[in-house]
Amino acid sequence: MADSPAPADPPGHDPTGGATLLPPELRAWMGLLAASGAIEQQLRPLVKETLDISHDEFLVLCLLADGPATGLRMTQIAERLGRPKTRLTYQVACLQHAGLITRNTACGDRRGIQVALTDKARRLLSEASASLAGAVTRAVEGLEGQHDCTVMRALLPKPADTGNDT
């Protein structure tokens, strides 16, 4: 009985010549996790130093800053961050105590809570955004090894054209 030919690119094939158990989708996911971990390591101390809040509280502020001006419902924040609602309640209470967010009853649903940024939070985020963005860029650019993060690097904005044609 003749051996059947091997497929040209079997699942888990490593293009560098080595064998791997992971298909490309899982390798990409692992690269995403590596990038996320590197970014968190860079941001955690910087967020604490510049904003005096935890990394998880910072994620809440980022969602609110990138969302509608009216804010987001607590359930939306919990879903987008993949966090339990009980943990989010604590984070929101800390942010409210710091004067960075407001909590109000959601329009049309007295059981729902709407959370929005305060002017103080907007000012702090605006002041800290350049250094925080720089930390994200440094973290992603510093990734190397088995997790190819070219996709993550491609998501980073390119330096703005200065307009000088020299």
UniProtKB/TrEMBL annotation:
Start and end residues of each HTH marR-type domain: 25-161
SUPFAM superfamilies named among the record's database cross-references: Winged helix' DNA-binding domain
Short name of any one Pfam family annotated for the protein: MarR_2
Region (Disordered): 1-21
Organism of this sequence: Streptomyces acidicola
GO MF, any single term: DNA-binding transcription factor activity
PROSITE patterns: HTH_MARR_2
Any one GO biological process: response to stress
InterPro entries: ArsR-like_HTH, HTH_MarR-typ, MarR/SlyA-like, WH-like_DNA-bd_sf, WH_DNA-bd_sf
Protein name, as recorded: Winged helix-turn-helix transcriptional regulator
